[in-house]
Amino acid sequence: MKEDRGRFGGEPCRVIGVLDDGARSLHPQALAHLRQAHCVIGGERTLRLLAEHIDPEARLLDLGGALSQVPGWVAEAQQAGQRCVVLATGDPLCHGIAAYLASRLCIEALEILPNLSTLQLACARVGLPWQDIRIVSVHSRDAGEWVPGADARHGLYALARAAHAHARLAVLTSPDNTPDRIGRLLLAEGLGADFQCAVAQRLCQPEEAVSAALSVQELAERRFADPNVVLLWRLQDKPQPVLFGLPDARYEQRHPDKGLITKHEVRAVSLARLQLRRDSIVWDIGAGSGAVGLEAARLCEQGHVYAIEKNEEDHAIALRNRQALGVGNYSLVHGKAPAGLEHWPDPDAVFIGGSGGELGELIHRVLQRLKPHGCLVMNFVTFENLGTALATLKEAAEALPLHWDVLQLQASRSKPILQMQRLAAENPVWVVCASRGVAHA
Fewest CB within a 10 Å sphere: which of 220, 239, 281, 422? Predict the structure, then answer.
């Protein structure tokens, strides 16, 4: 390793973690490296905080708004044989700059001198064990207020997902993505009664203050000094939900029409044929009450479901089912497919439960967007739609590596008759499955 470091000018770049009490937070070895550095890179505030410990002849470089230039600055200093220091906040390997530098230089070019992270300090102030805490950073550009159903393009998406999944969270905030905005996100996701909150502001500064035992409502209404850290912990253990095979009665449905819902048995087979993975991107076209898409979202905990429903009443019902099930990775649009599908990411799996009369065009569009080895599953109860689907698949198979098959499901459920039980048949359903590149299992 020493031989590798020699090609970077003889010494590695020291990435030093600093807290807001400046030199008091630094180990003597870290302070010595800083004093001997020819080139010091850091944020304007950190450079000012440690100015008296930096050689007056050293070159100072402000990384604010110039993160992409930092690897080049480091490499330039090393090639010139200069001792280089990068000043970071807390632990540089915990949502810090060190991993970024290592990915663009190499780990041999760096020596990491970590400090306590602000998360550790915040947990210590509150007395909250943090060995199992989920760390989420929203320390980025202004993400805007959270809108339920937003996808990964929103800067607060990871936080919304984590809040549904974890019992304890530590959130690195920013001047734009503030504690009160986080509180409003929790309220919007129906988690207002689930968490207790704390905010540690201006840690290691004379103005340090810790607000503990806050309710989510209080968090949403108060403003806190920057910089700060938000801690969230559940008041009760989160029950583990059923992921697959929820009964039909668990979903709100439109009445008196008995609702547009893919029945329990058909839903189970359709979900199985979608070949879902934890990170699958799923389209649900003709969502109805949302049953298939919502169960797919639970199965694809690291993925996302994009759904569309043209009926206004069913759209509202599916949204309420999303809220009742606490599903955070599900976006629902009120509209008629294929309009709007061009804005969705390419899918790994597509379920078509209704087409609004545009079935042939819809299938063609889906197959063009479906990822290699992706699966398309369609449910039909009429001869006409089945015929359209099969004709379209035959046509598409002339240009695409497509494999498809048809399954008919006929389920009967027991029902009471006097003191006995009888079987009552459900409507038969055709399940049409297609996949790109491999035979559908």
Answer: 239
